[in-house]
Amino acid sequence: MLISSPRSAIRSVVEQFVREELSQEDAQIAGAVWSMLSAGGKELRPRINLLSAQAAVAATPPDPVLASYMELIHIATLIHDDVVDNAGLRRGQHSTNSVHGNRFSVLAGDYLFSWVFKKITQDYANPIPTILASMLSEICNGEVKQLRATGNLSLSRAEYLDIIGKKTAELFASCAEVGAVAALQRVTRPGPQLRDHPVVRALRAYGWNFGLAFQIRDDLLDLIASDAELGKPAGSDLRERKVTLPVIAALEAEDETMRVSLYRLFESPPDAAAAGGQVLRTVIERLRTSAAVSQTKRAVDFYAQQARQALAAVSPSRAVAELEALTHSLSEYQVA
Amino acid sequence: MLISSPRSAIRSVVEQFVREELSQEDAQIAGAVWSMLSAGGKELRPRINLLSAQAAVAATPPDPVLASYMELIHIATLIHDDVVDNAGLRRGQHSTNSVHGNRFSVLAGDYLFSWVFKKITQDYANPIPTILASMLSEICNGEVKQLRATGNLSLSRAEYLDIIGKKTAELFASCAEVGAVAALQRVTRPGPQLRDHPVVRALRAYGWNFGLAFQIRDDLLDLIASDAELGKPAGSDLRERKVTLPVIAALEAEDETMRVSLYRLFESPPDAAAAGGQVLRTVIERLRTSAAVSQTKRAVDFYAQQARQALAAVSPSRAVAELEALTHSLSEYQVA
Question: What is the ipTM of this complex?
């Protein structure tokens, strides 16, 4: 039931959770989380978590609490990301840092991380807490690498994939993995060896490839979607001198005009690159009409296909079909 | 041996750990941690952790790795604190945020937290991971409360104690608690019931009261010590409009001149309160020569005494004597 109408059911579970548990502890932090929740989002991570549990053990009852933790960890990373990116808007709403300030946001993110870990270490056996703590350390490592790569137009595809693997794919992979592990823990001997179970590995590989495709698509949308569709100004990545696959693909094409405009943008003072800046507008327009767009779409399709292939090692079921359907949605570029 | 020359031995263990483990993963983060370690500090938290293990089970071998985790968690909170406080100096050195920027510091702190949690959930049985995750959530909650209390000259003693209990005493209490729990886990059945063991409760109470005394003393030193002794400008708390016990005690004394100067300082524009500002200097001088100093020292002595009383429930040993000796050092105000 949770699966058949996943979006609203998952959101209401997470919301109930925040209302009942988190707001007992600190109303301001709960309020910040609440406003991020009500701003929407697709709840892809808890959905993949729930579907992976069912894909691993068909009869497993849904564990909406574990799924909620996945969304809350995601929200905590977003709160810190917005401090790191100095973002003003998130999902079309004012970001936590722009409402409450960076200081509060750092602490609210820390609080949410530690609160979720308190609950997880209390209620879930290993390897679940270890998977999630390792995941968080990988995410931070990816974010540090991304920060260090700011403005580096020599960033290679491999370096880009390493960054997005850590900062994005790792969370999707872990959502799938802990879903499968939690389900298997109910029917078999718990322990760290569950990470090596073929179904767990397959679902983790699904999540990993899904996450890569998801982030590449997200980086493309930042370029080709409208401000309204994105809920924040288009071209944010370029404005922040974040080098993503469309830019790497454009530079690989050895189009001299494109190369000159990109270097001019990245070397221009921040003012010129600000929203509506002429240099920025020119670069966005050039990129949008270049072959980099179709090349980036091909990369999305490639990882979506890899995700589907990973599912081949899992017995067919309705949950597996739903996981597969999610990969097809990655190749659509109409933002709802 | 680790106990008899605790300072250098503990530091070298933590340093070795950072060199061997952390720098494998991200050299820049390891570098930031390294510079905080080499700036010194008294390693009180790992010492209390090691001594509590020996106080609980005399024959227990020291676990320098667990003790290192305690210091690394402390360092991670300091890295985030400096972002929250916008601090430029820490232990007489440039703070992480002033060297690498707030963005890097947020991520470096997150990385360190999650890395330590990954290790702890891998290698230590419950209730240790849960104690440490709960602790972290309490620390963040205390920091949020402190941030919200900024500039609030009506802050009560009870509210102040609640804040420092969460932001400082909780960490000392947990260092003592997990030390004792880890030692008992070697000689008795592991499980969450160990938190209720009378020796664990006594050592936790020791750590809690030690932590309160430690923070009150720290807040007093910020007022009465010199810049050189502190490794940062004296009066930082007043400059940041942080209301601490000396200020609360001064306001309780109903000295009208003092009240007027404090309100003038807190209402003055930030410039006037900046280092060397006349209003700030006047307030510091007034507070230093007021009865608030001796009253605050009495509060330190009270909690140091409570810490010693908690030790009464633990069988006498050399470790217990060392824990007791640490509480006496709290009543000394010569910063080495």
Answer: 0.83
